[in-house]
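We now fix the convention by which a protein and its fold are recorded. The integers have meaning only within a learned vocabulary of local backbone shapes. A complete example follows; check for yourself that the lines match position by position.
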Amino acid sequence: MEFETLPDPIRRPAARAAGLNPAHAWRLGWLAAICLAAAAALFTADSGGWSVWAALGAGAFPALASLVFTREDERTEALLLVLWAVGGSLAAVLTGGVGGAMAAWCLAPVAAASTLDQPRRLAEGAALALIGACVAALTQLSGLAPAAPTGPLAFVLGFLALVTTGLGLAAGLLIGRRRQGARDDRYASEIIGLETLLDGLPHLAIAVRGAGQVTAVRGAPPPGVTRADLVNRGLTGAAAPGDRQRLTAAIAQAHREGSASLTFNPALGVERVVALDMHRVAPNQLVGVLRDITVERNREHALDQARVDAEALAAGRARFLANMSHELRTPLNAIMGFSDIMRARMFGPLSDRYAEYAELIHESGGHLLDLINDVLDMSKIEAERFELQRGVFDAREAVQAAMRLLRVQSDTAGVQLRGVLPPAELEVDADRRALKQIVLNLVSNALKFTPRGGQVTVTAHGYDGVLEIVVADTGVGISPEDLERLGRPYEQAGGAEQRARGTGLGLSLVRAFAKLHGGEMMIESRLGAGTTVSVRLPVLLAPMVAATTPVEATEAPSEPAPLVEAPPSASFGDNVIAFSPR
């Protein structure tokens, strides 16, 4: 159902189309009366001189102008009122002034103003009528006015002036009543439409006065609240006893601050939850909306409980994996120890076949131990039980140690492993094992996805208190779809062969270790163009100083020192460490 109120420019033509406008009827009647008076004047003994006919013409002119200029705007209406004032006062002056037969026409602007749509025009008409009457009176007193007609002609002219003016005022009254009736009908229609809309609301709208007196109720009441209860007991009486004090405080807050909101349990349904929003619309007057939020509240509770259960399940899984990983490491260490004794032939020689088996057992045990360590670390991180063992050390040592451990893997894969380190110390405050694990995981992933003959480069440098480790490879790259998933636990990229060689915990551990240090990990890759992984950790203690270039103690360099490559060798202080495939 739609309710529409037509604006004035649309309503007026519609009203005119419905029937003859009373204002136009009065103007036509005015002209007809003048014509009849003129005809009657012809049959009188003394038809008067030119002044009588000029007076009749002055009175007819504004009526004709009103019928010709029908446009209803401010300027036209004001001009027509002036014409009515001039015509009426001129007719009065020409027939003897304010004591003459047509003195009533001085009220012509008042009669004309009463037929207009603008009530304020009455004041303008009255002012113009007063001015016209004053002009007629001054003309009469000064002796400039023609002699007033007498006899039957005076009667005809007086009757004409009184009748036309009286009909004009009566037409104005009729028009005003019609307009008021139409306005009342329109307002009634609008009120009915608003009431229909309010009654159709899915919530309950209320008007509140004072400390909780409900003066109006519209809409659908929520369960546990009735209209009669609100009207008879007030807003606070509709709430459960335990919530009434809070509701009273909220009403006072709405009066004081302009708005207030709260939830409470209704007195007739304490198991339900109702939300109330109140706004101040006038001094000591509030409007509010009551709505049932029991389903929403239950849904929120269910979601909260589901989140708590999921967190408990995840924590339990993490504890289980941590405990199982710990239990698996004990027998695995024994297996690796015994296989290592067999490889070293500490208790006598072995045949080539058994020696090969011992080597495979030790290699598989090492791989399994790495996987278990990854699972253990990730479980501790997810369970928020992983604690960094921070210490001050040279980050280059951890990077070089990790690269030495991966030398055999790079030789087997036929990939050149190259390290670019600064000549000066990189003193950091970090977890040595975590930093070493970051390099191991990144380089291991790079070797896995780099074909034979490729290259993996590890770069470490520092600037502005940040240690940055960059591992770049010339491998197959990562697709955009896989790139979005990487970094989450147990997510892997590549084909089935690469996925079978890991658990998908490498990059997630790197990201987790970086976050624990307050840093971040970023991956840049393109299919066929290799991958670059950067890890930035805010753990650098001192600015990097070149070994051969002294730096003033008053100002630390803002840019990292240049990495000057040196011929590869086995010494610790070299800038470049390269492991070429054998």
About this structure: Confidence is low (pLDDT under 50) at residues 1-19, 498-502, 544-575, 578-582. The chain has four domains: 8-195, 204-292, 302-382, 390-579. Residues 302-382 form a domain with the Helix Hairpins fold (CATH 1.10.287.130). The CA atoms of residues 312 and 521 lie 28 Å apart.
